[in-house]
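Researcher: I'm comparing several assemblies side by side, and this is the next one on my list. It has 962 residues spread over two chains. Same procedure as the others: predict the full complex and return the structure.
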Amino acid sequence: MSWDPIAKIANDVQASTIKAIDLVEQSLAAIEKHKEYQAIITVMAEQARSRAKVIDEKVANGVKVGRLAGVPFIAKDNILVRETEATASSNMLKGFVPPYQSTIVERLEAEGAICVAKANQDAFGHGASTENSDFFVTKNPHDKTRVPGGSSGGPAAAVVLEMAPFAIGTDTGGSIRQPASYVGCVGLRPTYGLTSRSGVVAMASSTDTIGPLTMSVEDAAYVLDVYAGKDELDGTTIDRDPQGYVLPPITRHLPTTKVGIIKEWMGEGLDDDVRKSIEKAAADLRAAGASVEEVSLPSLPLALAVYYILIPAEVSSNLARHDGQRYQFSAESGKNLTESYTHSRAKGFGREAKRRIMIGTYVLSSGYYDAYYKKAQTVRTKLINEFNAVFEKYDFLIGPVAPNAAFKIGENADDPLKMYLVDMMTVAPALVGVPAISIPVQPSGTTGMPIGLQIIAAQRQDRELLAFAAAAEEAIHE
Amino acid sequence: MTADATRRQYNVTIGIECHVQLKTKTKLFSGADNDAREAVPNTLVNHIDFGLPGALPILNEKAVELACHAAFALNTEPQRFSKFDRKHYFYPDLPLGYQITQYDEPIIIGGYIDIEVGGEKKRVGITRAHLEADAGKSTHPAGGDYSLVDLNRAGTPLLEIVSEPDMHSAAEAKAYAHELYLRMRYADVSEANLYYGNMRFDVNVSVSKTAELGTRTETKNLNSFRSIERAVEYEVERQIGLLEKGEQIVQETRGWDDDKQQTFSQRSKEDAHDYRYMPDPDVPPVVLSDEYVAGIEASMAELPDAYREKFREMGLDSKVIEDVIANPSVARQVGRIYDDAGPDHAKRVAFWLLQLSDDSSESSQSQESVKPDAQDANLIALSKMVAQGQLSSSAAKEVLDEMIKTGQDPAKIAEAKNLVQESDEAAIAEIVKSVLADNPKAAGDVQNGEMKAIGFLVGQVMKASKGKANPSLATKLIQKQLGL
């Protein structure tokens, strides 16, 4: 049974035409039914049921619950929910039950949402397939032999499997958009700073964002509207759009819209089926009246290299607190302090985390800092300037989310470089800090797997991006 | 000891780094209480200090404000742009695995402090000062196979002030440290309680026979002016001794053993960490507007120099001036009384307050424990009673003690204690008359020029008046009645 639009669900709960407890049971049943996809790490059945009862009681007493009254949702496992195990799919944090929770969950709950489960991911967000989860691989809802993308592969698969009307993921370099593209849902990466990182296990602080995964743009906008904006617990947050993100009606007039299709992403290395889908999407937009022309950002081919210098640097730093001294995994075998550190980190971290710590430590080392980290920051600034210049002329940029549709489980597992290449189209918007969204377009002609169109807007243009994406969703599906 | 002649061949160069603990209510990046002095270990720790996953540092604006005050106290202005960086190393008292500090764009660049040593004035340059979060405290119980970590101090805001290598003797190093200490207290930047380690000094010392600087050592964590002086003296002796024997100085970090009065090797440069500095992406840069900086400047409390000037005008000698300056609350009060009631009263009050702080601060390490609570008005009133001969100086001290304790009006205290001097000339003249009549021999001696005997007669007058007669008035009247 599929879900109604989120706004309608909340209205129905408030109007007492449906009960929160029934919604929770519907979620729990879907989670149970699709167990074999391994999208979920922790099911919060009892907590969710008791929250639902409280909400139903409030409704019965005529109390206004909020804009997400009784709406079940699923959180990626790196998002802290009070009193609920949060592992970020890593052995390092196995058994970690946080005494506090993320601002995002706090704000969703304040409007009546109910977290029903924590979803699988690549450990600490390192990966594009969930194959780097220390526990198990999530399967693509459209083909169990294929990956769901990552790192938010669990939340993305969960939404497509109708386990909840929405899921919350994190996007550091593509971790929401790419799985959304692979499983065929909507995935939004908001402007950097619009969504509080407080209570989210850090991957790379300068690009981590928290976004919704939904089955429609309308739902994504509705959820973002609840939790976007400044947070006194995160010094990098910015003010929300004073107009909010829900537009009644949330559409944009296409005939006056100028769209640039990114030349650098349509060339070599792009899968033919993906090319066809993106070209068809561009044609559909043109047909609906939008102007779509090719645009070049010459530094884009450098983005992946920049990303895989800067992000490991931040990763190596952010993972330093996982040292086996205060909480969770600590190797018993250490005979002294140095051994306690080295054994705990050697055993607690998976291969990909260790790889990134090594790269990050290397690029920050004295003597290499200028050659790598500093140079990468310079190119990052150049990228920001190029995006700014392009947004002077175009309202939005479009292109693929990834060079391919979902690949087979194990296909890239032994080749980290091949795996990193999957990120080539998603990392640039992350480095620049602009909002970007993935919406499903025509599936692959050969495999039938979903393909996403990436739409990018200028910084703080999240509202405009959502309005355009909603219009594009309609134009392209027609 | 190295012979003086040998010692004179060497130039001594000293630079000092000082960690000043800022006087904020909460920590540099968390809302946990910053006053760890008497707290039970690990009770002033929140999720940020503990380094829980997902915890983010939020910069304490008060710490930035105090650093700006420090800038003016160092004779410069704060930088309009500064940022925070991560300094990485692993240690159990460093929960994040990095210290948040300011690496290449600190909040203070430049500045200076003037000192005076042996009557000579000297200027010591400030290289820079940066904000940073302190680590926790590790203790290693003797004989135990474990260590203890207390994170109460983790995240405490520090301002690390780095001087230029402008000092050339132990006395100069001590004078610089002392003046820095005074300035941080007057600017209200820090409690500056040395006993609690609110200011900790690292002293870099090198010696050389040539213009080129010698290899330096850094003696860390000194927390008294005397230990700074002694550590410099020790290092100079040690280094010259080594060079004279043809040995080399090892660039290293050294500690100070207060019992042995010696420095000792801690770690050499080869063990130096690669801290892998990186801009902290969690903490946005600090950008200060001109208006903000102007506001700070306008709110600056008066610094020691202003008081020194005032006290010189009052006619205090330089030793007394420095004694008063050493106690900011005393200096501020004396300064106010000078402004309100003029130099004579201010001077008298200065001596009283110095005496009070001497009485009670000898044993306690905290100068702040002496808070002259006596109101300015009461002190002025008391001083006026002395000036008008209503109180003897010993009686005034007695009133003062009571006044400080109770805050009562001095006239009332003096009355209640029956300490007011009899200054009614007619009444004292009567007493003098009867004393002279009762002591003809002494009176005769005085008339014959034996002035010693006048003391005896005054004593008799005091006795007859039960101590209330004004002794100088009594003397005058004795002389008058004896026709002298």
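Model: For your comparison table: Chain B touches chain A through 29 residues (CB under 8 Å).
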